[in-house]
Design goal:
Blueprint lengths: L3 H13 L2 H4 L1 H12 L7 H10 L7 E5 L6 E2 L3 E2 L1 E5 L6 H16 L14 H21 L14 H8 L35 E8 L4 E7 L47 E5 L4 E8 L3 H14 L5 H6 L3 E3 L5 E4 L4 H9 L4 E4 L9 E9 L12 E7 L3 E7 L3 E3 L2 E3 L1 E10 L1
Parallel strand pairs: 10-11
Antiparallel strand pairs: 1-4, 2-3, 4-7, 5-6, 5-17, 7-8, 8-12, 9-10, 12-13, 14-17, 15-16
Organism: Ophiocordyceps sinensis
Pfam families: G_glu_transpept
InterPro entries: GGT-like_enzyme, GGT_lsub, GGT_ssub_C, Ntn_hydrolases_N
Length: about 425
C-alpha cells in the first residue's frame, strides 16, 4: 500500500526533527483537525508538549534472583528486568516478579522447575502476583509526581503486599496498597481495559547492542481523525485518563495518561544483554512479560517455545482467562484453588498478547576464563499474529563484519 502523504511527513521529520512535528504545517494540521470537531487544542499546546517531552526517560528495573536460577561465573546469578517507568504499566510486571520472590522468601511457594511450568501451583502464584500488582497499578500508575512511582518496588512494600498471598486458594478481593501517604483513596479501576493496535520490533547487532521498540495509536485506529495532508491518524490515549479528580490518573493539563505499551529488556547481572522482548495487547502486556520471561528462566524454554506456550490473563474483574491448549489438569487445579476460570478458544486467543523475543546467550563450549566469549543469538515470533524474525546481516563496518538480527510483529491477530 502506498501512503505518499505519510512519506511526506517522514521527510519533514528527517529534515526538521521533532520541531517539524510539533510546530509548523503538521502541528497546524493537527490543531485544525481537532478544532473543526470542537476540540480545544492550540498551537502553543503542541509547542509546550515538545519542550516538556525532551527529557530522557530513566527506565526502572528489578533484580530477579529467585527460583534457583543458575550462577554464571562471569555473568552472576539471576537477571535484571528493565521496563518503561510510569505513566507506563511496566512497573506491574516488575511488581509481579518481586512478589514472586517474596512468596518464595516466605516459604509460600517452592522453587519451581521445568516440570512445574504451567502447572496449577505455578500459575496460581503468577496469577495472584499479577492480581496484587494490578490492584496497585490501576490506582498508582500515572504521570508523576502524582502517584507512588518506584516506591511500589521497595522490598518492604512488596513484602507487605506478599502477605496477601494464600497458596491454598485465590483471594476474593484485592485493594490497592499505600506506599505513600495521600489520604483516603477513592476506589477506581482504570479505563485502559481494552486492546490496542500496536506494532513491536526489536533489533540487535553482533556486538550485543539492542533496541526494543513499541508504538500504538491505542484503540482501533485511534480517533480515526486524519490531519489534512499528513497521512496518519491521531491516537486516543486520553481515554485512559480517569474523570475522578481524586484519582492519581485524573485528567489534567500537561499530563500523560496511564499508558499500556511497554518495551521490555533483560540484562544479566554483569550488565550484558539477556534479551529484548515485548508482548502487545493492552493490559496483557505486563502479564505477557512475566509469563514469557519465566517460561525461559524457570521452564527452560527457548524464545519460540516461550511464546508458543499457552498463557493466562487476569481480566478487568481480576478473574482468570485461560488459553485453549492449557492442560486440563491445570485448568481444574486452578478452579480447585477457587479461581474463576474461562477457557478462551479460536481467534479470540489473540487477547493473550502477541510477542517477540531476541535472546543473547554465551556459547557453552567457551572456556569460563576466556577473555572474549562467543555470542549465540536466538529469537521467536508469536504465532498469534503476523510477524517474523530474520537475520539482517552481515553488515560490514570498516574492516569488521557484524551480523544483526531483526524481529517485528503487528498486532492484528491471525
Amino acid at each position: 500500500m502506498r501512503n505518499p502523504l505519510l512519506a511526506k511527513t517522514f521527510r519533514t521529520l528527517a529534515d526538521k526533527g521533532k520541531d517539524g512535528f510539533y510546530t509548523g504545517e503538521i502541528a497546524q494540521a493537527i490543531v485544525t483537525a481537532l478544532r473543526d470537531r470542537g476540540g480545544l487544542m492550540e498551537m502553543e499546546d503542541l509547542a509546550e508538549h515538545s519542550k516538556d517531552s525532551k527529557q530522557e526517560v530513566t527506565p526502572i528495573s528489578l533484580k530477579f534472583t529467585a527460583q534457583g536460577l543458575d550462577d554464571d561465573p562471569k555473568r552472576g546469578r539471576g537477571v535484571e528486568v528493565w521496563e518503561h517507568p510510569p505513566n507506563g504499566q511496566g512497573i506491574i510486571a516488575l511488581m509481579a516478579l518481586g512478589l514472586m520472590q517474596q512468596f518464595q522468601a516466605a516459604d509460600k511457594i517452592k522453587v519451581f522447575g521445568p516440570e512445574d511450568f504451567n502447572s496449577a501451583e505455578y500459575l496460581h502464584a503468577i496469577i495472584e502476583a499479577l492480581r496484587i500488582s494490578f490492584s496497585d497499578g490501576r490506582w498508582w500508575v500515572a504521570d508523576y509526581g502524582s502517584g507512588a512511582g518506584p516506591d511500589l518496588l521497595q522490598d518492604e512494600y512488596l513484602k507487605k503486599r506478599a502477605e496477601l498471598f494464600d497458596n491454598t486458594k485465590a483471594i476474593d478481593k484485592f485493594d490497592h496498597g499505600e506506599p505513600v501517604q495521600r489520604g483516603k483513596p477513592v476506589q477506581f479501576q482504570s479505563p485502559a481495559l481494552q486492546s490496542c493496535d500496536t506494532v513491536y520490533f526489536a533489533v540487535a547487532d553482533g556486538q550485543g547492542n539492542v533496541a526494543s521498540f513499541i508504538n500504538s495509536n491505542f484503540s482501533g485506529f485511534g480517533t480515526a481523525i486524519i490531519p489534512a495532508d499528513c497521512g496518519f491518524t491521531l491516537q486516543n490515549r486520553g481515554s485512559a485518563f480517569s474523570l475522578d479528580s481524586n484519582h492519581p490518573n485524573s485528567i489534567a493539563p500537561r499530563k500523560r495518561p496511564y499508558h499500556t505499551i511497554i518495551p521490555g529488556m533483560v540484562t544479566n547481572m554483569d550488565g550484558s544483554l539477556h534479551s529484548a522482548f515485548g508482548v502487545m495487547g493492552g493490559f496483557m502486556q505486563p502479564q505477557g512479560h512475566v509469563q514469557v520471561l519465566l517460561g525461559q528462566l524457570i521452564g527452560r524454554l527457548n524464545p519460540q517455545q516461550a511464546l508458543d506456550a499457552p498463557r493466562i490473563s487476569v481480566n478487568e474483574n481480576l478473574d482468570v482467562d485461560v488459553e485453549e491448549g492449557m492442560p486440563e489438569a491445570t485448568i481444574q487445579g486452578l478452579r480447585d484453588l477457587k479461581h474463576t476460570v474461562t477457557v478462551v478458544k479460536g481467534r479470540a486467543r489473540g487477547m493473550f498478547g502477541r510477542g517477540q523475543i531476541i535472546r543473547c546467550s554465551i556459547d557453552p563450549v567457551d572456556p569460563v576464563d576466556a577473555q572474549t566469549r562467543t555470542l549465540i543469538w536466538s529469537a521467536g515470533s508469536d504465532l498469534r499474529a503476523d510477524g517474523a524474525v530474520y537475520p539482517a546481516g552481515p553488515v560490514r563496518q570498516g574492516k569488521e563484519q557484524q551480523s544483526s538480527i531483526f524481529s517485528y510483529l503487528f498486532s492484528r491477530p491471525k
